[in-house]
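Weekly puzzle thread! Below is a chain. First person to post its structure in token form gets bragging rights.
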Amino acid sequence: MGNVRSFVGNSMGGLRGGQNVASWVVAGTIAYFLWVKPSLDLKKEQQARAALAVAESNQYVEKRKPIADPQVTGLIYGNKNKPQD
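Winning reply:
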């Protein structure tokens, strides 16, 4: 039992008490800012992009063809087959 306790103590850096807790706090803080926070920020950014894409897809889109000008198409007499400048 003593060997297990010494192994665990040595694997944690051999620190005891307040020093051990402080070292774990520092390690946890560094791990949070290096791994956890960037992944959370990436998820938030992806959700914002997805929400923006959904909002843009719901915009009104004209589905009818525009009505051509009858003078240009030659439907009104006197303007058939004239080249446009």
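Puzzle host: Confirmed. Bonus trivia for everyone else. The mean pLDDT is 78.
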